């Protein structure tokens, strides 16, 4: 497996576990982290033995934001010309699912990257926030949009205007995270959840992820149409014949990814 500077990558069966590893900066996201993550997720997407990924950080911080020290000396011209942060959208183009397993701080860019993943599992220690306004800037990696989609305008507006953090209980109640898990079991439970997904028929996993995402990117009529087309398309796969035959014959299905 490739060597990365700022992340650790290991395969656990069909699950790729990616751990942010800049403990000295609470996993602040700099350009090296971006390059490492893009390479790791591209390798994960291209590896047919891998079905689902987990992105996690440390017990103290998933990630405490974009690297303020890297951005400090940048001016408008540098940021605009380099389209700073645009590379992060690449993470959302990963076709297989990525679960964010968040313990401790997920602030600014850290919260934004967690929200780029397909769903968030939160440790009971998790804290989510968009505190950029305190630095006289704003979310820049999609946070103002994805947080608003996830928790609604009232909470999103309060969080981005005040920089207030949300704990795990509030985040679950608001719909930002799918479940809360005791911190000591977070990674193990996230890998187990990812293994459940990795054991599904691979084409069905891609199609199901794509259609849920369409709910955020299109209107209802287009989204339902998109779902229907993908649903029809899955009836062209060998795994659909196998899955339905296995059900009728009361046995487990075995998938070819065809
Ligand atoms: N960037 C760089 N270094 C960081 C960051 C960060 N975001 N967060 C923490 N660190 C560093 C600290 O500087 C410190 O380093 P050192 O030991 O060298 O001084 C080390 O990590 C440990 O941090 P603390 O000593 O502060 O740890 P505490 O436990 O006291 O506090 C906090 C933890 C509350 C998380 C605190 O570190 C903090 O407030 N961090 C900053 C949080 C923040 O503001 N994040 C948002 C950053 S901006 C962003 O993400 C998106 C900007 C979008 C701009 C769009 C432009 C296009």
TrEMBL record:
Keyword line: Fatty acid metabolism, Lipid metabolism, Lyase
Protein EC: 4.2.1.17
Function according to Swiss-Prot or TrEMBL: Could possibly oxidize fatty acids using specific components.
Organism placement in taxonomy: Bacteria, Pseudomonadati, Pseudomonadota, Alphaproteobacteria, Sphingomonadales
Matching NCBIfam families: PRK05862.1 (NF004517)
Lineage top rank: taxon: Bacteria
Reaction equations catalysed: a 4-saturated-(3S)-3-hydroxyacyl-CoA = a (3E)-enoyl-CoA + H2O; a (3S)-3-hydroxyacyl-CoA = a (2E)-enoyl-CoA + H2O
Protein name per the record: enoyl-CoA hydratase
Family to which the UniProt record says this protein belongs: Belongs to the enoyl-CoA hydratase/isomerase family.
GO process terms (BP): fatty acid beta-oxidation
Keyword check for Lipid metabolism: yes
MF annotations from Gene Ontology: enoyl-CoA hydratase activity
Main EC class the enzyme belongs to: lyase
PANTHER family (alphabetical): ENOYL-COA HYDRATASE, MITOCHONDRIAL, ENOYL-COA HYDRATASE-RELATED
Pfam family, one: ECH_1
Keyword flag Lyase: yes
């Amino acid at each position: 497996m490739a060597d990365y500077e700022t992340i650790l990558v290991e395969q656990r069966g069909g699950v790729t576990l990616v751990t942010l590893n800049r403990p000295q900066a609470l996993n602040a996201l700099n350009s090296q982290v971006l390059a490492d993550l893009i390479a790791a997720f591209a390798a994960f997407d291209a590896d047919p033995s891998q079905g689902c990924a987990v992105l996690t950080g440390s017990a103290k911080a998933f990630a405490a934001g974009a690297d303020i020290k890297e951005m400090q000396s940048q001016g408008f011209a540098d940021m605009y010309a380099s389209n700073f942060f645009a590379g992060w959208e690449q993470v959302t183009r990963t076709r297989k699912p990525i679960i964010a397993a968040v313990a401790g701080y997920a602030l600014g860019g850290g919260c934004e990257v967690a929200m780029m993943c397909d769903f968030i599992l939160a440790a009971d220690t998790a804290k989510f926030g968009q505190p950029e306004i305190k630095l006289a800037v704003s979310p820049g990696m999609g946070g103002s949009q994805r947080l608003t989609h996830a928790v609604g305008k009232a909470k999103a507006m309060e969080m981005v205007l005040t920089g207030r953090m949300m704990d795990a209980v509030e985040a679950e109640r608001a719909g930002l995270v799918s479940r809360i898990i005791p911190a000591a079991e977070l990674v193990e439970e996230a890998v187990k959840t990812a293994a459940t997904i990795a054991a599904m028929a691979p084409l069905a996993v891609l199609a199901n992820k794509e259609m849920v995402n369409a709910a955020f990117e299109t209107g209802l009529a287009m989204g339902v149409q998109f779902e229907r087309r993908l649903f029809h398309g899955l009836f062209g796969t060998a795994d659909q014949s196998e899955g339905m035959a296995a059900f009728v014959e009361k046995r487990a299905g075995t998938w070819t990814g065809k």
